[in-house]
Amino acid sequence: MNIGVLGGGQLARMMAQAGSSLGLKFMFLCPDSHACAAPYGEHLCAPYDDKLAQEHLAKWADVVTYEFENIPLPLVESLQQQIPLHPASSVLSVARDRLPEKLLFHTLGIPTAKFTPVDSLEMLINALEDINPPAILKTRTQGYDGKGQALLLKGSDLSAIWKEIGEVTCIVESMVKFRREISIIAARNQKGDMVFYPVSENHHRDGILRLSISRQNDAMQVAAEAKIRKIMDNLGYVGVMTLELFQVGDQLFANELAPRVHNSGHWTIEATETSQFENHLRAICGLPLGRTSSTQTTAMVNLVGRLPEESGIRNIPGASLHFYGKTKRPGRKLGHVTLTSSDYSPEEFEIGLAALLKLAGEAELASRKFFNSTPLTQCN
Ligand code: AMP
Asked: How far does CA 180 lie from the centroid of its chain?
C-alpha cells in the first residue's frame, strides 16, 4: 500500500522505518526542504496549500495520515473528500484547538484543570478573578513543546503578556499541583478493536519532554486506559492516539490529546512486539493490530539541541541510539536514546539511566532517583 503523510519530521521518519518491513511505501508532503523523513520515501517539498502537490499525493496514496496537529484543517478536509484519511478531520478539528478538546473531556466526564476561554485582554483580566494565580495562559492552537504559553502570577503585567502571546484566542488554565505527568498511547482500528501500551511517566524541562519512563505494572494503567478508550470510542477514532494526563493523588486529569504517535512512546520500538508507529500504520491500513505488552522497565531520553558523543552512549549496555538526521538548533529534538532493562538489575538500570541523562545534558534529572523505594506508582 502507498501511505501519504502530511509532515516530514522525525515522527513521519520513524513511521516509514516501521512501515518498510510491512512492505508499505511513503510519500511526505512537507514544506521543509530538509525534511528528515525524506530519505524514507518520496518528498513533495511544497507548501501545504499547494494544489498540484495535494493532487499528486491524493492520486498516489491509498491512505493519508499526518504526523502533527498543526497542519491546515482545510487541507485535511479536502483530502478526506478524495481518499481515505485517518484520523478523520473531525478528530483534528478537536485535537488542534484546546477549547473543543477540553469541552470533549468534560462531556465525557474526564476531569481537567479549571479553564476558561479568553479572547481579549478584558476577558483575561476577568478570568483571573475566577481562576486564582498561579495559572497558565495557552494559545488555543499552534502550541507545542511549551510554545504559546505564559505563566500568570499574582501581579503579572497582563497587558504585556497578552501582547507577547500575540493577542490570539486562548484559554486560561489553573495550575495543577501534579504528582506525576503520564501519557497513555492506544491504537484503534476501523472495527473498533483497541490495544493499549503501558503508560509512560514523563519529565519535562522548559516545556520540552526530556525523559519518559515506562514502569512495570504502573498503578494508573487501568484508569488511563478507561479514559482514552472513552475518547477514542466517542470519536470513532482510527489510528494511534496519545492522551497526556496529570496524576494528582490517585486521580487523573486530562491535559491534552495528540491524534498521532507521540514522543513519549518512542521506547515502544525496542520494548514491545509492535511499536506505536507500526500499530498506527496497521490501524489506518485495516490490518490486525499487533501486541503491545512490555515485560521490562524502559526509559527514553531525548537529545535536544546538541548531540552527545556517540561512543559514550554506545558504551552504556541496553542503550539504543536514534539520530533523526536534523541540523543542530537550540531546543530542537535531534534524536533519542532508549534504555532497556533486560540486562540490568534495578540498581544497574538506575546507574545506566543517570549516565545517559548526564551525556544528554540533563544534569538535574541525572541527579534524581527514579527507582528507589519510594512507591511512586502506588496510589490507593
Ligand atoms: P501542554 O502544551 O499543555 O502539554 O503543556 C506543556 C507542559 O506544561 C506540560 O507537560 C506540563 O508540564 C506543563 N503544564 C501545562 N498545563 C499545566 C497545568 N494546568 N498545570 C501544571 N502544569 C501544566
From this structure: 16
